[in-house]
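Reply to dn_fold:

You asked what the input looked like. This is it:
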Amino acid sequence: CGWFFDEPSGLETTQILKYARYGLELARRLDAPDLEKSFLKKLAEGKSNLPDYGSLREIFQKA
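and this is what came back:
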């Protein structure tokens, strides 16, 4: 897990979110159901410990 013991805005989590973005893109190319909307909704529930970074959704969108 990329942020189990860490601040979610850190390097490891940011890299894992980039992998997730690529996975969503691959699914889209294969005509899979659109997963991004539900993924972003889940990410919005997770918050950074540093107020400047906001939610995991915001971190994902900046990654």
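Residues 11-62 form one domain.
Hope that clears it up.
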